[in-house]
What does this fold into?
Amino acid sequence: MGDLANTVAKLEEEVADVRELRKIVERLDTEIFSRMEEIEEAGTEILNLHGDLDDQIAEHDYMAVEQSVASLRGLVDVETVLPAIDTVLLLTALRDDAPVPDLTLPLASFADDDSWEHPRLTQEDLDREFKAELVRADQRWQEVWGDHSWDDEGERQSHQAEDRADAETEAIKARAGRAGAHLMGLVDHIGETLWPELVEAVESSDRERAARALAAAASAARATETAYKLYEVNLSIQFESSPDSMGAMGEFLSGVQGWLLSEKPE
It folds into this structure.
């Protein structure tokens, strides 16, 4: 009976150890799932921002656009995302009895430099296309009206000037639209290209690849600050040129502008 009791006690001890190990694994799984969910949810929120920006830019709601791009930068915060990545990789390695990944990374990988690939746009780019649109508008006018018989030269010049003014208004509107589209392009690049790559790298326990994807996403997110300023400047030019082209926002800003001018001391 003594041997049997010892055997039973040993088995009970082993069962207890197994249960404890199972609890540890379950806790590891829960923490891994939670951190992975944080990373994936950030990607979903980034994609949702595209839809928000689409509506906000269409409505010329520059204040909401500014808030959306600020939210994007918050989602792609290296100090928040990188620890979540490292937690998933470390706990996964411990759970699976795999080699612990090298969690060291040169800070230069996240430097605010210009080496990462993402959509780029400058005021010079916008102005170049703006001038090209005006040239095309002049060419169209010549094709349609160049051989027209005018009562006098003044009538011809007046018609051409009116057409040129309309073309310039449309070109200014298109320039602001391109600046807004550039913002959306940065969000798309992060949400549709870089974040899926990041998630896939974490799931594959490829820390180096995940860090590169995060660094590229952080660079693109930083670029939204300059991109927003570009959008704001060109939207302001659109407002000055044609408030009516901005719909309800144009009416609102015109009202505010009128009120401010009326409040100025004489």
Notes: Confidence is low (pLDDT under 50) at residues 4-12, 14-18. The radius of gyration is 30 Å. Residues 2-58 form the longest helix (57 residues). DSSP finds seven helices and no strands in the chain.
